[in-house]
Specification:
By secondary structure, the protein is α/β, with parallel strands linked by helices. It has seven helices and ten strands. The strands form two sheets. Strands 6-7-8-3-9-10 form a six-stranded mixed beta sheet, with helices on both faces.
């Protein structure tokens, strides 16, 4: 599903974030990407999300080489992935329903599909009863569940999550992980960058560890360290 070959990333300020990354991730996997701050986790997530191209190397997702996508092909790619951020990135002036609907609107979904799928996504994360509330009226855990609904509303084949539990307490963090597990069980591949040792050690999923932009460990049923 994902093939990464000899990927390097050097930012304009000269910082080398990734160094010769080679990686395969299969469909339906649940993968943790771990490492200290600055190890390259977020850069890898952002490359998969097509925020920018790598300095060198190739990234292929769902059969598409990201650096060769034409402008008209990008919306279709973005429909195939969902992204969850640590800082939520919700639209504060829009209600929960409209935040989730926006993810469909930006990829050109039909209004009738939006009316059908947004309630389904909110129900999947237990927030259908709060569809008309604003983000500031919700707890941090509820806001992150809105982010999950937004990520799954286009029925993606892949979800990439960058520290989605970083601002949450342990109990709420585990609730978010349970939702991600359920999404994964339904057939969606999940890649999650995290510092949360307890969650990684509890789930015993595949663990890819980065250090100074390099992969130093790749284990099935791994632990944080």
């Amino acid at each position: 599903m994902i093939e990464i070959r000899h990927v390097n990333m050097v930012y304009p300020n000269g910082v080398r974030a990734l160094n010769d990354i080679n990686l395969n991730i299969d469909r339906n996997e649940f993968v943790f990407v771990v490492g200290a701050s600055g190890a390259g986790k977020s850069t890898l997530i952002r490359l998969l999300g097509l925020e920018f191209p790598p300095t060198a190397g190739k990234i292929k997702v769902l059969g598409k080489e990201l650096t060769r996508l034409r402008r008209r092909e990008i919306p279709a790619y973005r429909r195939s992935i969902g992204v969850v951020f640590q800082d939520f990135r919700l639209l504060e002036n829009r209600c929960v329903y409209d935040n989730v609907a926006f993810a469909m609107q930006v990829v050109g979904a039909r209004p009738r599909d939006i009316r059908r799928r947004v309630p389904e996504a909110l129900e999947a994360v237990g927030l259908l009863d709060k569809a008309r509330m604003k983000p500031q009226e919700l707890s941090g855990g509820e806001q992150q569940r809105v982010c999950l609904a937004r990520a799954i509303v286009n029925n993606p084949s892949l979800i990439i999550a960058d520290e989605p539990t970083g601002n949450l307490d342990p109990k709420t963090s585990m609730e978010i992980i349970e939702h991600l597990k359920a999404i994964n069980i339904r057939g969606t591949t999940v890649i999650m960058a995290t510092h949360d040792r307890e969650i990684v050690n509890a789930l015993k999923k595949r663990v890819i560890a980065l250090e100074n932009g390099r992969i130093i460990r790749d284990e099935q049923r791994g632990e944080y360290s």
